[in-house]
Amino acid sequence: MFYLPKYIEQILYILEKNGYEAYVVGGSVRDMLLNKAPKDYDIATDATPEEVESIFHDLKKINVGKEFGTIILILKEGQVEITTFRLEGAYIDGRRPSWVKFSSKIVEDLSRRDFTINAMAYNHRTGLIDPFRGKEDLKRGILRTVGNPEDRFSEDYLRILRAVRFSTQLGFIIEESTYKAAKKYSKNVSSISMERITDEFFKILLCEKPSKGIRLLEELGILEIILPELVPAIGFDQKNPNHEMDVYEHTLCVLDNTLPIIQLRLAALFHDIGKPHTMTIDEEGIGHFYDHDKLSAEMSKEILTRFKCSNDLIQKVYILVKEHMNHHANFSEKGLKKLIRRVGEEEIFNLIKLQKADIKCSKKDATINHIIDREKRIMQIIENKETYDLKQLEINGDDLISLGFKEGKIIGKILEYLLEKVMEEPSLNDKETLKKLALKKFSNKSKN
C-alpha cells in the first residue's frame, strides 16, 4: 500500500540521519491509501528551513516560501516541498493566518490542515499517523473537515471549493456538518481572488464526472457567484422535439461525455450558454435558438477573460463554441479544408468530440454517423497533407514580390486566391504553376 520512490526515501533518510523527524504528508498519503500513484510528494519535518537548507546544501533549492517554513528541492525527478511542522494563528482575511510559528510535533502540524483525508502522515519507521481518522473516512467515502467545519472554512474560503473538488474527484459524500458550514459561508467565495477560484474550478471541470461538481456548486449557492451566466439555463425548457433535456441538464450531459481536456470541457460548459437569451417560438410552439452559437462564443470570451485565462485558451474555447453547430452543414472537401483552417489542426478533433457529445445528449435516437464520416474525411485530408493553409502553399510573399507585385495588402489577397484554387485542385500546388496563376489574375492591376 505504501510505496515511496527512492528519491523520497532518500530525503526522509537524510533528514532522520541528521536527527530530525520527517514524514510524507497530505495528498500523497491519501492517494497511496486509495491505491493511486501520487502526482507529487510533500514532506513535513521538525527541521527549520535554515536546517533544511544546510542539510541539502549541495542541491538546488527555491526558498520563496521560507518565511512560512517551506523549502523546495529541485531534483531531476521533480520538485519536492519540505515544510517545517507549524502552528497557525487566527485567519484575519479568509486566506492567511495572522501568525505562523514552527512546531516540533507532527500532530500539531496535521491539526491545521483542511480535511481529515489530507491530515495524515507516513514514514517507514513510524508507519501511518492518523489523528483525525482520515483512513476511516477514506474507506467510508466521506469528506469532513479537521475539527469544526465553520472554523476551517472561515479560515480560508477556498476550502469550500476544495471540498467540492475533492467530493467530485473522489466521488465522496460531504459530511453533513461540513456541508452545512460550506453552504453557510459560500457567499464569501466572492472574496477569493479570481486566480484561485479559476484554479479550483478548472480542477473540478477536469474530474471524471464534472457534472457532480457543477451540481454541488449550484446547491451550495456558489454557481451564481462564479458563473452566474449558467444559472438561466437551469430548468430552461427548450420546447423542441430534438432536445429531450432542459439546457442545464443537456449541458451537464455534454460536459460528462467529453474528454478531460480543459478547452474541450470549457467549450462543453459554454456551448449553449446563450440559448436562454436567443429563444424564439414559432407558430407551432416549437423553440428555436438562432445564432445562439455566436452569442455563446462571445459570452465564453467574456467569462474566460473574467477568469483571467490566457488569450490562447480563450481563443480555443471561443472557436470551439462558435463552430459547434456546423455539424448540420454538408461540407464539400474544400469546405472541410476551410473548416480545418478556421479551427486549427490541433483543435479540429476536439471540435468533433464536442459535436459527438452534443448530439448524443440531445435525443436518445440521435445518430452521430455523419460526424464519424466527417472525422474520417478530415483525417484523410491531414494524413495526405492536402493544402488548407497559406503556409502549405509552394509559394510565398517573397516569391510574389520577386514577380514584381507591390508589398502590402495585395500580397495577402493573391495568396488567398491561390489557396482557394489549390483547395479546389491540389495538383496546382506547384511554385511555377502558382506564379502563372498569380500573373494571369493580378498582373494588370498590381505590379509596378
From TrEMBL:
Keyword field: Magnesium, Metal-binding, Nucleotide-binding, Nucleotidyltransferase, RNA-binding, Transferase, tRNA processing
GO biological-process terms attached to the record: tRNA processing
GO function terms (MF aspect): metal ion binding; nucleotide binding; nucleotidyltransferase activity; tRNA binding
The keyword Cell membrane is assigned to this record: no
Residue ranges occupied by any CCA-adding enzyme C-terminal domain in the UniProt entry: 289-436
InterPro entries to which the protein is assigned, alphabetical: Bact_CCA-adding_enz_type3_sf (IPR050264), CCA-adding_enz_C (IPR032810), HD/PDEase_dom (IPR003607), HDIG_dom (IPR006675), NT_sf (IPR043519), PolA_pol_head_dom (IPR002646), PolyA_RNA-bd (IPR032828)
Name of the protein this chain belongs to: tRNA nucleotidyltransferase (CCA-adding enzyme)
Highest classification ranks of the organism: Bacteria, Bacillati, Bacillota, Tissierellia, Tissierellales
